[in-house]
């Protein structure tokens, strides 16, 4: 039927189904770091409860290796797949409908759960001001504002994210220099007295890996903005790689300052560790700065999560894996507004369970399953498209080492998660299994299989051995 459609109508139809290309490297940095930076204000400190102070910093650096491998892999594949959906899009081209449905669903829940965790922290830090403070109105108003911002356009959304993320990041340095760490006589840091080493031995390090992910969880979401980049081959590598370096620096400083100001036992249970560290300094300016930084980090993260989860949901709908009602783009603002609005109440509902570590665990489980599949996809991608057969905006060095590292460390982290949250893992696996059954037995018969298969064939050259 489309063969008889005039070329100008086909061009207009294609334009209407794609998002606006307005983003540069700054926006990709703001998306990646904005989502993740909140993990330095909360969540990472559960590594201390699981593995002790030394286990926490080891987990930070080991998981850093996992994420630099993931960023390199995502950037290479994402630079030649400039569509909304990130790892979902990669799975669509490389693994087929059922696997891509699961990857898309895992991405959505990774970010929806992270957004819920942000809401929980905002509520608890506001209540810390006074027990009579009602956090609910502030949380709902914040999420409604960010949803409205996403509804109106991605450029304004991520431009705002750049500024609030930068301010939140600067507050970490305010805390660092507020301790006078550089002075042997005036430093407030008491690392030797307050840390507890490896209380659970090497098994504690394995258990700590799960929450060590919180230092970086979400940086892979930069690939979800590929379709909206002015130059994917430039914006994605620069924004993602500079973003990772930013997070690695921030994570190390965060561990150093918090471990020197708050005792390990209290730090391992804190809801907002950087703010608690600021309170320990007793300096009003530092306390106010970290209060503001924690709020801004949560808002930046929630803002980016709304963006990423909606792009994954939109991409799945556009490819007919879920009902097409969510694939509609706003005629004026060029945003997937129905996907944005649909996911908001789901996130709010999870946020008000009050179970921060449970919400974080489901987000991390979803992410780890995506990482395992991403490592496999990289092997398949390089086998189908060896270097020189397709134009790449970025080439991940030392292949297959990054893919192997990603695969092994993701499985190790899943093993560590099993030690403390096996029931949550079981529930998560059951959920994705039931979702797969629903897709196979019900939704797949409504799917436009021809459209799904031909989506990649027209974009790429024929793979090796085709």
Describe the structure.
The chain has 466 residues and is an all-alpha fold. It is 71% helix and 0% strand. It contains 18 helices and no strands. The longest helix has 41 residues. The protein is globular and about 70 Å long.
Shape: globular
H/E element order: HHHHHHHHHHHHHHHHHH
- Average pLDDT rating: 85
Strand content: under 5%
Distance between the termini: 27 Å
How much helical structure, as a percent, in the residues? over 70%
Distinctive features:
disordered N terminus; mainly alpha; globular; 466 residues
TL;DR of this structure?
The protein has 18 helices and no strands.
Task: Provide the fold topology.
Layout: H1 7-16, H2 25-36, H3 38-41, H4 46-79, H5 87-94, H6 97-127, H7 135-152, H8 154-178, H9 191-194, H10 201-212, H11 232-261, H12 264-267, H13 273-281, H14 284-318, H15 337-351, H16 356-384, H17 401-441, H18 449-457
Helix pairs in contact: 2-8, 2-11, 2-14, 4-10, 4-11, 4-16, 4-17, 5-6, 5-16, 6-7, 6-14, 6-15, 6-16, 6-17, 7-14, 7-15, 8-11, 8-14, 10-17, 11-13, 13-14, 14-15, 16-17
